[in-house]
Design goal:
The structure holds 2 protein chains of 2 kinds. By secondary structure, chain A is mainly α. Chain A has 3 domains: about 20-150, no CATH class; about 175-260 and about 275-305 and about 320-380, no CATH class; about 390-500. Helices cover about 60% and strands about 0% of the residues of chain A. Chain B is globular, with a radius of gyration of 25 Å. In chain B, about 70% of the residues lie in helices and about 0% in strands. Chain B contains 18 helices and 4 strands. Classes of the chains: A mainly alpha, B mainly alpha.
């Protein structure tokens, strides 16, 4: 208690001094802060008031200035600004921008021009104030006037849309959007001020892409422009999970058009067939889709990883393995050096996609190599390489080898578990099992060489490992039998000794 | 010296001339173990505890030949011992099994002494030395647990030693002394190693010697109500051979368990698979629990709120436990009826109450009946209910057996412990509220009983 008293006094004094340092809240602002609604409830909520009390003097002065100049005259207007809960830098940008201040005032704006945190249902989604303040451009100090023109410091009502904005027909032909965004995004010197790592060749790529040609040359209203993928207000960096171009949301953005049969009607694939609209559905169910969307594995590809971003285009027949090799480098390299590459080119088959599919790539299984009904090799070879039974034999050899190793891994893995529970040393078995698992992985990859010799080079250590593990498991089982035998012998000896003691006792007590 | 006035020949004579062993042999020859109406089996539990302790010493010495204390060597040397050294696995397995069996045997020995009132005068100090040995045995368990320096041991020791902080005033200092620093490090390992293989064994052997000396000087306690057993059993050879027979049986069981279950029975708090090496930089994994004989205290700590009566919850818990253990230590002086060699059902009931109390907490610590998310409020309720039913079942059986076969009429403590269990597990009151109600009722009942007994005695005195 003796220590507490001086502490309390010092703290109270410090609080009193700091409170005395804070300038008083100007009358108009104070009135808005304490205003009540029709039901007598304060308009500014406790949370908003706490946020206000935490603002620094500079921001408080800016707010005060807005109330003194009567840009903010209503408590609900002030509440909508405080409710944003912006950090000081962003709040400073907002309070110095008369465009935002005016367009958030419910008294002077019509519903179609009023920005609020919860725009009425059915209104333009661009009117969401949260989107505006979360926009990457706003965060870097680029507010309304950056795109719409005008002077944000002026309190006079004037709109001088930048000259790149067409006076009429802005929605009919949206090609102007490209050059409009490119004013900044194609200027390396300008962009360097904000994000030196961001490329500035988006427009050049886009122009050469089917999307770009469709918009610029064909003037098709269905063609996407920058805003179609990135949004209007509320543009976020690709790293932001809310961004429409975040890896986990790219498929939704693409699906907005590509999964819509009416939008895609009339478009053809390179082979002339109608453009399908099930790619995204297939992708979601594929190994890649599940890895990214269910497991959150950001290394898994989404649409743009194979098709590109601004230069998005179909993956050409000869470039399929190049796309896949971005991740599956070893398999692609083996395929490129195999006889199959030439054969596939002759048949104009899309390399990896021929066996694995494209958007709906499923989990591979060893039975693809077998002679059974799920076999891919046999199916193709019976049709196109009937005269070469050695090829079918090679596939079956691959299947037999991998199955042998895999079965060994499963069987001995279970045996090692049992032995470990019995207290045997299973570390050498686990080491060999890990070696075998690596070999099985490599062997599965090496089937893409379609060469028995190449496959054997990696599979041979695996077959040897199976034999070694088998010997280790046998040894461990023998050791366990020895332990049991030793125990049985010990029990017999102890039992004999106990019998002797028992008879001795009986003899003594008779 | 002579047996009947003449000198013996041979080795016995040779020893006798030098060390005068004849009086000792004569003492042992005439030594008797009292027989009574109860089973003789309770007299053997001290012997089995000693047997398991001897196994511990023997296997401990063999383990010591390979074990190297130290952050970089402790785990590795244990791994080497159990995987590469011939029969190293068996030595460790026997050491661990024997440790648990020793504690089981010791607990049974202590409770049998309690129920038979063998602690009554003049054997108070035999009880106290036994009590200290019980504490030392728990110390053996706690210090030995850390020595393999594996993950489980490391975190269990971190959590376990952390409790010392709750000791008022000197808590932080004690923790520092125990750990050899603020955290569990190699210094803690060295300390625990020294404790486990030098300090505790020296103290324990000294106490065994005193304990046995007391037993030899005073003989084994005769059954209550008899000053001297009417009919005794010769210690040599009858009792000693029976002891040997039981030891051999214990050895057999120990070997079977060690070979077939080398890492323990798989019950939480009774498993000793080496697992992975301790990594002090890893966060402690959830649900870590101590050995089974500390589970009751672990659970009791969980039942206390963070703050109670202006103190920290663990501090209050530690205070309660210290009080209970202190009462347990001075029972020979509290039990006046047994001191008068009269039946003392109240203290037997106190012993059974303690068993019910410990059983319920231990069952709860095992999460018996727990749902998938064990720590959810719904699961905790189900655990409390399931454990309550089990404990109530056990308690009712005990009461019936005591009532019918032992004609006991004292059930205040057992009843209070069962009421506590029922109020908490079945009615849903908090553990402490239920405990406070049960303890108040028990105190009132004991008070009334003592007062009425005094009145009866006074009126009898008046009549006389």
């Amino acid at each position: 208690m003796k220590r507490l008293l001086p502490c309390t006094l010092i703290c109270s004094l410090a609080l009193a001094v700091s409170a005395a340092d804070k300038p008083p809240i100007p009358e108009k602002l104070a009135a808005l802060l304490t205003a009540t609604n029709d039901t007598g409830q304060p308009v500014i909520t406790g949370e908003q008031r706490t946020y206000f009390d935490g603002l620094n003097d500079h921001i408080t002065a800016l707010l005060s200035n807005a109330t003194e100049t009567e840009i903010i005259t209503r408590a609900d207007h002030l509440a909508s600004i405080l409710a944003l809960g912006l950090r000081p830098q962003k709040m400073e940008v907002l309070l110095q921008d008369n465009c935002v201040l005016c367009h958030t005032d419910p008294e002077v704006q019509k519903p179609e021009t009023l920005f609020s945190l919860s725009p009425p249902t059915g209104s333009n989604s661009h009117l969401n104030l949260r989107h505006v303040v979360d926009d990457v451009h706003f965060a870097r100090g680029l507010s309304c006037s950056g795109c719409h023109g005008g002077d944000p410091a002026s309190d006079k009502l004037e709109h001088t849309h930048v000259k790149e904005w067409p006076a009429t027909g802005r929605y009919k032909n949206r090609a102007w959007v490209l050059s409009f965004c490119a004013r900044c995004h194609s200027d390396p010197v300008f962009m360097n001020r904000f994000n030196p790592a961001l490329p500035t060749d988006q427009l050049a790529k886009y122009k050469d892409s089917p999307h770009g040609k469709l918009l610029i040359e064909t003037k098709d209203p269905r063609a996407p422009d920058c805003l179609s993928c990135h949004g209007v207000h509320g543009i976020r960096t690709a790293k932001n999970p809310l961004s429409t171009v975040n890896p986990k949301r790219v498929h939704e953005t693409c699906a907005a058009c590509h999964a819509n049969p009416s939008t895609m009607a009339g478009f053809k694939t390179p082979d002339g067939s109608p453009m399908p609209t099930n790619q995204v559905a297939e992708y979601r169910a594929s190994v890649h889709g599940r890895a990214l969307l269910e497991r959150g594995d950001l290394g898994a590809p989404t649409c743009n990883k194979c098709h590109g971003n601004h230069a998005a285009m179909p993956v050409g027949l000869s470039s399929v393995s190049q796309s896949c090799s971005l991740c599956h480098a070893a398999n692609a390299s083996l395929f490129d050096g195999s006889k199959h590459k030439i054969a596939f080119e002759e048949h104009k088959w899309p390399q990896c996609a021929k066996c694995h599919g494209n958007h709906g790539i499923g989990k591979t299984h060893d039975a693809m190599l077998s002679g059974g009904p799920r076999s891919l090799c046999v199916e193709c070879h019976q049709q196109y390489a009937k005269d070469n039974p050695a090829c079918t034999a090679t596939a079956e050899y691959f299947y037999a080898s991998i199955t042998h190793m895999n079965e060994g891994w499963n069987r001995f893995g279970a045996a090692a578990e049992h032995l470990a529970i019995r207290g045997l040393d299973v570390e050498p078995i686990h080491d060999k099992l890990n070696e075998l698992a690596d070999t099985v992985k490599q062997a599965r990859s090496h089937i893409h060489s379609f060469s028995k010799n190449s496959f054997d080079q990696v599979a041979a250590p695996g077959n040897k490992a199976v034999q070694e593990i088998s010997a280790l498991v046998d040894n461990a089982n023998s050791e366990y039998r020895f332990r049991q035998l030793g125990l049985a012998g010990s029990i017999v000896l102890i039992a004999l000794l106990m019998t002797a003691v028992y008879f001795k006792l009986r003899r003594l007590e008779r | 010296m002579s047996d009947h006035g003449h000198e013996r020949s041979g080795l016995r004579g040779w020893l006798d001339r030098r060390y005068q062993i004849t009086p000792l042999i004569e003492f042992l020859r005439h030594k008797e173990v009292p027989k009574g109406p109860h089973s003789m089996v309770w007299y053997y539990l001290g012997g089995t505890t000693t047997f398991f302790f001897m196994v511990q010493v023997l296997t401990g010495v063999l383990l010591l030949m390979y074990y190297q204390p130290g952050e970089a060597t402790a785990y590795e040397s244990m791994r080497y011992l159990t995987t590469k050294v011939p029969f190293g696995w068996l030595m460790r397995s026997i050491h661990c099994w024997s440790a648990h069996l020793m504690i089981i045997s010791l607990v049974a020995h202590m409770f049998s002494t309690m129920m038979l009132k063998a602690y009554r005068p003049p054997r108070e100090l035999t009880w106290v030395t036994g009590y200290i040995m019980f504490a030392l045995t728990l110390g053996f368990g706690f210090s030995g647990y850390l020595l393999p320096w594996n993950k489980l041991a490391f975190f269990a020791t971190s959590v376990g030693t952390d409790l010392v902080k709750s000791v008022p005033v000197a808590g932080d200092w004690l923790l520092h002394v125990l750990r050899g620093g603020p955290d569990v490090t190699a210094n803690t390992l060295y300390r625990f190693f020294a404790l486990h293989v030098v300090i505790l064994p020296l103290l324990f052997v000294g106490l065994i010697a005193i304990h046995l000396l007391f037993v030899q000087r005073q003989g084994m306690a005769p059954p209550l109500g008899q000053k001297v057993a009417p009919r005794g059993m010769k210690f040599f050879p009858s009792f000693a051979l029976r002891d040997l027979l039981l030891w051999l049986f214990c050895l057999m069981i120990l070997l079977v368990l060690s070979v077939f279950l080398p890492y323990g029975p798989g019950i939480p708090g009774m498993e000793w698979e080496l697992g992975e090496k301790a990594d002090p930089f890893e966060p402690a994994f959830p649900g870590i629990k101590p050995e089974w004989y500390f589970l009751w205290e672990y659970q009791l700590l969980k039942e206390f709120p963070p703050h109670l009566f202006g103190l920290e919850g663990p501090q209050v818990c530690l205070l309660v436990v210290t009080l209970l253990l202190a009462v347990w230590a001075i029972i020979p002086w509290l039990d006046r009826q047994a001191a008068r060699n009269e039946p003392s059902s109240g203290f037997s009931d106190f012993g059974w109450g303690a068993i019910v109390f410990l059983t319920f907490l231990t069952l709860k610590a095992w999460d018996i009946g727990g749902l998938e998310s064990v720590d959810s409020p719904a699961s905790l309720k189900v655990i409390a209910r399931t454990c309550a039913w089990w404990t109530l079942g056990l308690g009712v059986i005990v009461i019936i057996v005591r009532f019918v076969f032992y004609l006991d009429r004292w059930f205040i403590f057992t009843g209070a412990a069962l009421l506590h269990v029922a109020l908490h597990g079945l009615v849903g009151l908090s553990y402490l509220t239920a405990g406070a109600i049960a303890a108040s009722l028990a105190a009132a009942a004991v008070g009334i009983r003592i007062l009425s007994a005094r009145k009866t005695r006074a009126s009898l005195g008046g009549v006389v």
